[in-house]
Amino acid sequence: MPFKRPLSSHTSDDESLFSHDQHSKRVCSGSPWNIGEEKPLLVYILQAKIHPETMSELAALVENYTIERVDSQRNQGPGVVSKLNLELTGDVKKANIIVTAIKMRQRLERHIDWRIAKTKAIVTPSWLRDSVKSGQPLSCGNYVAVHNLEDEALQHCPDTVQDISSSSSIHLPSPEKESSWQTEPDEPIDATEAESLSCNAKYSCLRPSPLVCPNQGLVKEIDIIRRSRHIEGEDRSMLSYSRAISVIKAYPHVITEHNLHDLHELPFLGEKVLSMIEEFLKTGRITEAQKFLADPRFQSLSAFITIHGIGPHSARRLYDLGLRTLEELERYYEVIPGLSDEETMSLLEAESSANTEAAVEKSIKIGLALRHDLSQTIPCEEVEEINRTVMRELSHVQKGCKNVIAGGYRRGKPQSNDVDIVITHTDWKIGSQKVKGLCRKLVQRLHEQGFVTHVMHLSGFHEHNVLRTRHWDSLEKALTVFVWPHNPSRQRIYRRVDLIFAAPEVFWTAVVGWTGSTMFQRDLRLWAKQQKGMKFDSSGISRRHDSRLYYPRTERDVFKVLGLLYVHPTLRNADA
Ligand code: CTP
Ligand code: MN
Ligand code: MN
C-alpha cells in the first residue's frame, strides 16, 4: 500500500471522508502518489445520507484508482497517462467536485454554505463510479445531485477543465459485479440492519466494520506497531493494538482535532493510542511505527513470518541463528526458488504425522520455494474460477454438495491472499456421513487432475476428543497449493487454497468462522462465553452448562442463536 494520506488538523467540516492539509505534500513525497505531473482533481465526499458501506466503497474507488493508475503508468511508461488524477479532500472550499447523495437544497445547506455550493460541481456518487470506470472525468450533465444547482454543476464540471483522454481504461471491481461473483450470492446489505449496529460497542461483532474505513491511513500506521508486538511474541500488547484498530475501523467519521475528544467515548482506546492518534493528526505519522519500519530486525522477522509454517517464535529462532533475509532462509532450508518437489502428497497417507516437526518443515520448504508466487494476491475473478474448478471436481467424487467462498473474498476484498472454500452436503439428515472423509478424496482427485500440487496441512480426521460428539469432529480441512495445469493461455502461478469440510449441522458456523475477520471471530467467541454462557468456534456452538449443541440452518441463525444482530459479511472487517 502506498503511504497514507494524513488527516487534516484544521478542517472545519468533519463530515467528509478524508482531509487534505498542508502536511500532505511532505508526507506523500517520495511515495507513489506523486507520480504524474498533472494537478489532482480534489474530490469532497459529503458523508451525510451516505451509508458507511457506500462511503468506504467511494473512498476505496479514489484510493484504488490512484494506486492502479500509478501501477499502470509504471508498467506502460510515460506514453499512457490517464487524465483522471483523483485525490480526496476534507476541505470543501478546495474541492473541484463534490459527491453527495443529498438532493434537496435545504438539506445540502445544513452541510455546505450555499455561496460555496454555487461555485462547485455537485454530483451523485455515480459520477465518481462511472468516471473511474472510464478513466476520465465525465461530463456532469447526467449526474447533477441538486436540481437547483444544475447550471453550476455543468459550469464547474471538471470535464471542461481537464483535457479528456481515452488513453486509459482501468478495470475496477464494481459493486454491480460483486454480486455475480458468488456461487451462492450473499444477500445485499440491509441499511436499517447495518444502522442498528453500534460503533462504540465493546465487542467487534456488534460493530459495523467496513473493508476500508474513513481513517484507514491511521489504522495502517497503528497496525505496524501491532505487527511489531506480534513478531516479538508480546501477545497481550498485540491484542490491545488489535482491539484499538478494530474500534477505529468501525468509527464512521474522519478523526480530526475537532472530534478527537469523542474518541474517549470509544472502548479500548487508552492514553497511549490516543496520543499516537494525536501525533498522526499533526504529522501524518506515528514515530514508533516509523521506527519499526526502519528497524532491520522488524524487517527480517516480518519477512520470515510471511512464509507458511513460520510463526513469530520460529522467525525469532531463525534470526537468532544469524539469518536475516529470505534468500538466506532458502540456503538454510536448501530450497531452490520456484522448484518444490517435496513429497507432500504423502501427507494424505501419513495423516497422523501431519503436525509433526517434519511436516511443518516440509510446509516451510514449499512456502519458501514458491514464495514469489504465493506472495502475489489473487483477484476475485480468479478466486471464483478456482472455486468453480474445485466444485466441479468435487461433483465427480460426491454429488449434492454445496459451498461458500469464505475468507477475505467474502468480506469484499478485491484481492485475496488465498482462497477459503467451506463445503458441506445439502442433505441435512445424511450429509454428515456424506462429507466424512471427503476432504481427503477431493484433494486426491485434485492432485490426480493436476490442480493440487502440494498439501501444506491436513487435519480433522480423528475422533480425538471423546468428550465431544461427532459433530465437533466434523471439520476436515486441507491447506493446499493449487495451480492451473499447463495451459499456454494461462500463467502458471501457484495459489494457496484452503478446503474446509463441515457437516450440515455446523456448516454455517464454519462459514461464519472462516469468513472472519480474525478479530470479529475472536469477539464472537468472547461474546458467546462472557454474555451467553455458550461456546462458539468454527466447528460448532454449544451451551456451556449442559453441552447442548445448536444446529443453525442459516447464517442468520448463527447470529440469532448467539443473541446477536446480523452483521453483513462486508461489515466484518474488524482487522486492519
Ligand atoms: N481461520 C480459522 N482457522 C484457521 C485459519 C483461519 O478459523 N486455522 C479463519 C479466521 O477467522 C480468518 C478466516 O478463517 O479470518 C480466513 O483466514 P485467512 O485465509 O488466513 O485470511 P483472510 O481473512 O481470508 O484474508 P486473506 O486470505 O486475503 O489474507
Ligand atoms: Mn483467506
Ligand atoms: Mn485461508
Could you tell me the CATH topology label of the largest domain: Beta Polymerase, domain 2
Helix content: 40-55%
The CATH superfamily of the largest domain appears as Beta Polymerase, domain 2
Spans of at least 5 consecutive residues whose pLDDT stays below 50 are: 1-37, 76-81, 161-182, 463-473
What is the CATH architecture term of the largest domain? 2-Layer Sandwich
C-alpha geometry: globular
* Number of E-state strands: 14
Mean pLDDT: 83
Which distinct ligands sit in these coordinates? Answer: cytidine-5'-triphosphate, manganese (II) ion
In whole angstroms, the N-to-C terminal distance is 12 Å
Q: What class would the helix/strand composition place it in?
A: alpha/beta
Proportion of beta-strand residues:
5-15%
Briefly summarize what is shown.
With 576 residues, the chain is α/β, with parallel strands linked by helices.
Explain this structure.
The chain has 576 residues and is an alpha/beta fold. The protein has four domains: 41-177, 3-Layer(aba) Sandwich (Rossmann fold), CATH 3.40.50.10190; 211-294, DNA polymerase beta, N-terminal domain-like (DNA polymerase, domain 1); 307-372, no CATH class; 376-571, 2-Layer Sandwich (Beta Polymerase, domain 2). The chain is built from 25 helices and 14 strands. Strand 12 and strand 13 (540-543) form a beta hairpin. The protein is globular. The structure holds cytidine-5'-triphosphate and manganese (II) ion (MN) (2 copies).
